[in-house]
Design goal:
Elements (H helix, E strand, L loop, with lengths): L1 H14 L5 H12 L5 E3 L7 H12 L6 E3 L7 H12 L6 E3 L16 E3 L9 H13 L5 E3 L7 H13 L5 E3 L6 H12 L7 E3 L7 H91 L4 H115 L5 H121 L7 H99 L1 H5 L4
Parallel strand pairs: 1-2, 2-3, 3-4, 4-5, 5-6, 6-7
Length: 660
Amino acid sequence: MEDFRRSYLRLCKEGGIDAQESVLAQLHDARTVTGSCRLDLRGQSITVDTCSVLGRVLQSDAVFTEVLLSDCMLSEEGVKLLLNGLCSNTTVKVLDLKKILQMLTYCLCLSWRLVLEWNALGMWEEGFGVFCEGLASNTSLAQLDLRNNQINHQGAAELCIALKRNSTLQELDLRWNNIGLLGGRSILEAMQQNRTLNKLEMAGNNIPSDTLRAIEQSMNHNADRQSTLRESRSRTQVLSKEIQLLKEEKSRQFLSLMETIDRQKDEMGRSSRNSSIRLGQLQEVLSEQKSSVNSLTAKLQMTEAALALSEQKAHDLGELLTRFKLEKAELRDRQSREIQKEQEEAKLLKEVNSVSEKNLQLRNKLEETERRCKTQQDQIFELKQELTNTTAELKLRLAQTEERLEMEKRRSKQALEDMDGLRQKEVDHLTRHQEESERALQERILKLEGQRIQLEEELSRVKASLVTERAQAEEELGKVRAQVRLEEQQHLTSLEEKLRAVRQSRDESQNHCTHQKQTIAELHAKVGQQSIEMDTLRRRIDELQQDLAGKEQEKVAEVTRVRVELQEQIGHLQAERTAQSGLKEKIAALEREMKVLSTAHREALLDKESEISSLLERLRIREGEIQRIREDEAQRASFLQNAILTYVQGSPLAHFSPKK
């Protein structure tokens, strides 16, 4: 505030101008009020020099948001200087220029409200045209007050051109002007193109009531349109947020499933590697044991005790081999089952993706149907506006014809009263003139009736177009339903194919089992061959018993050593058994986790099915709403038709029609 005062005094000194005491006093008062952002100079007689200084100071001012200059007796030059400064100002929100007697052409830099009451702007046509051009290009002004400005129908036409181009003005006050019937028509025409003006005051302008009602209807339509736009924007925002949340949740679930599947795959790979390593170690141990058995048989060919021990070892080793083979078969079965489970999980994931794609397609179809409904509503609204415009024009034309008839009747009466004493020739001339005027009026009435018939034909055409559009919409709905049915059939066929694939995998597993049975039979045959070889060895032992008598002591020592080695090997085998039991426990834990994952997959599928059912319910609700809207529009069209028919029957045209 103090900076504004200092700059004002400095510029006055530089320009050699005496600073006005009234302006300084107002600046001092504004400085004493804390938090004040208003420059109040109302009722002060401000000179042109002071206006130039104030305009220069306001160019760079960032304090005042309201400038009040009403009743200041400003001249045109002073107003131009002030407004030149305000054009580069970005902080002033409200400018009050009440009772300025000259035109303001530079006042469209404000961002909210402009008050121009009692300024006689309509008296200066050129300046008012420039003002309207500025209003058309303005993109920030929301409220404009033009009361008591002597605006005629020409100024109203220029103002309507500006309103057609303006897209930010919301409130306009035109009370107590001279707009008249023509200006009211032009304003009504402008309201058909302007979609943002919500409030328009038109009292005291000599405008007929029907045009005022039409203007009010257009204002109501604008208000309804903006409310529907706000509601649609809020709904779209809510739906977009819900869709985004659903997408995030589904992505998180998918990522968690993929992580668990990767972990299971890693664990299964590790377990298979460990099992393969251990199987290799066992095979090596078996090979070592076989070599030891061969060495023992070579060394202890002469001893029965050594042969008995070797038979026991061979029998134990055979049992261990059978156990290991059974365990291998079990591990292979489990691995095959786990692979099948993984395949089923992949199939389930593909099904989930297909279901999500179908949901997106259904949503897109819903959006398309909503857009088509909106376009149909807009067309119906435009037809209603055309009907109202035509009815208003018919009313105006009827009023004009009635006024002309009354004026001509009055003239004829006055002429008859004044010319009673005149000659018979003048009376004949007047009668001829009346007949010609009546003929002209009858011709005009016939033309109006022809126009009415044309309008009725246009109404019938519009109704036919609406009926065709309804049929097209119903056909499109049928097509959408057929597409949905086809997609369901395709989904069923895909499920049948999946069942076939599962059956094929089952057959393959059965074939694998048969192959394993064949391998087991081959192993049994090999065991029989080994038993035959053992019988041959026994025979050889019986033959060599005589040679073993002298070497019993050496054999006893060797037997004790062999027993120690066998005990060590048995300890190793027991340790390996404990490790295998740990592996079995891990496998059981993995199977439990797989069961948990399968339950989670089932729950996710159930959630998807519930979402699909909810979307179908929404579709049904939307179809019901569309049907209701169509029925309402049909009722409105029937009401409008009945109203037009009643109006035409009750209008003077119905009385003139029999006189054809």
